[in-house]
Amino acid sequence: MTILVSNKFILPAFSGLILHGRPGFETELEADFIYRSTTLAGTHSITERHEGLLITSCSIDAPISERSPLLLQHLQQWWPQWIFARQVSACFAFLPALNTQDRIQDLIQAIPSFLHVCDVVFESTDSNEGKSLSRLFKALEARLTDQLRQQGTLRASAPFRLHLVFRDGQTAWLGLSPADASSPWPMGIPRLKMPGGAPSRSTLKLDEALQWLREEDRIRLLKPGMKVVDLGAAPGGWTWQMVQRGMLVTAVDHGSMDKALMQSGMVEHVSADGFVYRPRKTVDWLLCDMVEQPRRIAQLLAQWLQQNHARCIIANLKLPMKRRWEEVQLCLDILHKAARSLPSAPVVRARQLYHDREEITIWVLPSRSEGS
Asked: Which domains does the chain have, with CATH numbers?
């Protein structure tokens, strides 16, 4: 079955969603899906559960011709709101028995001839078995993309991404996502290398958080000379990221900062309690990666917002072992309430990133109408 979208794009019929998240957080990923799907009339459920991967069914209460466009429309609306989903696509085909002698032919036959995509993303479960497929992906990618380009399926101007999600070497789902409402990285995982000069591996958490910003937000919000406060800074993994971008950082921590970082001349170390410290003037950025109860961190961030101490915030919340979804919702309620009390109406976002482990990242950013 094919679906006409406006008078330009034709879509296949979607059976549900493919959701990628962190292994061990499948329950939270399911809660995330259930929470989003309440805005879409119909019947929705989880049909398969794997390490860091959920397959859902979606039966939408709408005329057949409207179901696929409606699901993609909701994917665009939901994309900034997902918390435990790093990658999401709409499933249109399931291949349970790929011919291991000629997988390319099976994949080509399953991709509708009318479909135009700008990118092809190879994905798997976030597991040892999934990682073992990397060699297979390298063997398939060049040949498949070349063939799709020759037949006109692969077009730079197309608004969709094609997702090939392998459970193993013989089983795969095919999905589609809006190019502007999905991750360009397979499974939503950016491949970051540990910088040689960074004081700690925590630097990768902030690096990833900054890369998840829209390009226009990185341009307007990350400028040399900006003022930053880093709470719980020692030994300086997050501070290092901002110094690399030419920013001036006040590092607040009773612990010692990295000596090489302090020699940059761009860091002031203040030995103080991160819950007590406040800047004399509004700063451009507040960073916070302190080990503390998540709701206490959320309350601290809300105070900084309401007292106009910082224009932008990136913080990590360390999650409890149980009732993690409920704790996240409580923390977001605190932050959304603080944001709504301000005339500037900053935007609050949250997502569990690849380098986060047992935590989530919070962004609080000025609205785009505010300028920079």
From this structure: 2-188 (3.30.2300.20), 203-370 (3.40.50.150)
